[in-house]
Each structure stands twice: as structure tokens, then as C-alpha cells.
Amino acid sequence: SAFRLSIMRKFPSVLVRTFTPGTTGSPELLDMASVRDKLRDVVGASTNWSDHVQAMQERRALHTLLAKRQEDLPPRRMKDSYLEVVLPLGSQPEIREKYLNVHNSVRFGRILEDLDSLGVLICYTHTKQEMQPKSPLSIVTALVDKINLCKKIIYPDSDIKFTGNVSWVGKTSMEVTMHMLQLQDGEYSPVLDATFVMVARDPENKRPAFVNPLVPETPEEEAIFKQGELNKLRRIDFNTASLLKMAPTAEERNIVHDIFLNTLDTRQEGEGTVSFRSRKLPPNSVWMEDAKLKGLQICHPQERNIFNRIFGGFLMRKAFELGWATACSYGGSRPFIVSVDDIMFQKPVEIGSLLLLSAQVCYTEKNYIQIRVHSEVYDANTREHHTTNIFHFTFISENEVPRVVPNTYGESMLYLDGKRHFTAVMKEI
């Protein structure tokens, strides 16, 4: 399908500046390993799990460096946070295996991890104070607004380049726009666009903290900044109209009723009466309750982020892989990711947690499969479950897929929510 390429396409060329860490030497082009090293340096995180308690205690002293008001912080430009990072899959084959899937293309779950790390580093670059080697801010991913792909396959033997910068700023939050390109025939061609929202918190990650304001410099940057405002309003509207708060629209009620009528069993005995209870599956359809998979993850120290919680990118990778497996078993052929949208990080996941993931096919249309993955942590001591994340993935299958059919009112709401996400994604691409 023809994918719309955003206004941001031309943007990186405007901002041709490779990240230089405050020195006047030759500019350095980062790779993914150095992105993670830089994050550890800027926070003062330890590389040893055994030292993490002490490292976090040392961060407490950074409280004094926090700004009391946003106005006290120097404004920044978009190009101040612009970074370019290379993933040298072509030129360094030794890192290839980590990124390889069985179909001999790149594992998208690994790309999600890289985008998450890069988004955080871009925000630290935006908020960097010249005289402070360590940042008093704890910057964490609040949500993945959207990731739209314009390539079905990411090749495992060609270099990848990520570019990105802060594109909108609130008082304590920052929107980051990132692009991924892959080297083909001697030039980098677009693979995906991503929009993340990060929040800044105090050194102990307890309260919100102010970030530097952003000043657009050109009409193009004004348009990008304005889009950040619109993205925020769109999210508020989407949330306000949530089916957990508001009844479905008249059109949506008709859809649900049509599905209900379509599943009534008319082959009743006796007088030809049709019961409300007697339901049958229409041809080429699958009941929603038969279209789900579950998974469990034990959260080990290896998967920790710089704040010694579970790394958001790891959660995204695990949710994506379960979602992919669900789409694969549902459609009976290899699915390709089209879009990721509206991933909310509601609660941090502590190390040692039991993470329960459940993936559900909630909407289908032609070759498309809309999947929702719900993740929750189980606390063995209190025996309580808490939702940590909801993920939404849109896949396209090689063949047309069966129709997914809700049976209960709750499933019908999931179906409508899936349809809303799918419609929003289709508008974008």
C-alpha cells in the first residue's frame, strides 16, 4: 500500500548535525551500544546489579539541581536534541544474530527496544546542562503514540540509521519524533516513523520535574510543534470517548447488533422460534474467545533499565512477539507489522515481578488483524494483579483472514475498541 510520508521526511536534512558530546573534535556517530552507555553515564547507573542500591542513593543528592520553575531553564531548539545513530548490520555482521528472525529479516521487537533507548537519550540531550555531567532528571517513556511502517521487510544485512529529535514540549513532558532508514542501493530509504512521549521526573522517579522549553525556529518547525499539540489533543479526545467511560455511538451500536443477529441460530425446533441464547458461528469466522494467547515472563535483573526497573523496550518486545504469534496462529500465515499505536505505560514493572501477558485478536478486516496485548504484574506476596501496559498492534497477513466474532457484551466493546484503533491507523497510513 502507498504509505504517506510525513512532513518530517525533509527534516533531518535541515538538521544535519551529528551528536557531539560538548567537544570541538570531529563529530561522533553513535551506535546502539554507545547510546546505552551514554544513558548509564548521564544517570550514573551502575553496570553491576549488586551496586544498584548505592547508585540510586547517590542520585538522591541530585535533587538540589532540579529547576523550581520551567522559566528558570534555558530554551532549546529542535536541532539541539537531534541525534543520528547507526545500527551497522551490514558492516558489522557479528551483531546481526541478535537482530535476526527465522524468516531472515530483522526482529521488529529489537527495533522497539532501540527506539525506546534512543528516545530517552534524545530527551536527555534536550535537557542537558553544560556544567552538570549527571542529570537530576529521571526520564521515562510515558507512551508510544504511534509507529507507522512503510516497509514490510527490514533486511538483516544492510546498515540501519535512526534519526530523531524533540518535536514538542509541555511543562514536564516531551514528544520525540524518530525515523528509521535502511541503506539500499547506496542511499538510506525510509522504513518507519515513530512518535514517543517521555516524561521527566525527579532523581528518585517519584514526582514530575520541569524540562527546558522548546523554541521552533522556522515555519517547518512551527508546523511540527503544532502537530505535537494536535497529537496531545487527539489523545485526550480518544481517551475521553473511551468505551470504558462512554456508551458506543449509534453507528457502533448498530454494528454490534448486526453481529448479534448474524450469530443467532435460526434452526430451532418447534414453532420456528428464535432464542436470544442460541448462537452459532457464521461461516469463515472465529469466536473471539478462541483467538487469544497468553505468556508469562519472570523479570530478571538483566532486563533492567538505568533506574533499575524493567526496561520499557523489553516489555514492548515481549508484547510484540506474543502479538505476532497470535496473528500468525490466527491467520495461518506469516503476518507483517503495519503499525503500533497507543501504548500506555501505566505502572513501572519491578525486577522480580511475574509479568502476565495476554494477546487478543479484537478486530479483523480483509487481510488485517488488530491485536491488543494486556500486560499485568502479579505480586506473589499480596496475590494482587495490576495492569502495567496495554499494547495495540496492526498486522497484515499474506492471505485474507477469518472474521473475529464477539460473543459477550464485554467482547463487543473490545471489538469496537479494536475497530477504532484500526480506523485511526488506516487514516494515518
TrEMBL record:
It comes from Sclerurus mexicanus (tawny-throated leaftosser). Its main location: mitochondrion. GO terms for molecular function: carboxylic ester hydrolase activity; fatty acyl-CoA hydrolase activity. Keywords: Hydrolase, Mitochondrion, Repeat, Serine esterase, Transit peptide. One of its GO terms (biological process) is acyl-CoA metabolic process. This is ACOT9 thioesterase. GO terms for cellular component: mitochondrion. It is found in: Mitochondrion. PANTHER family: ACYL-COA THIOESTERASE, ACYL-COENZYME A THIOESTERASE 9, MITOCHONDRIAL.
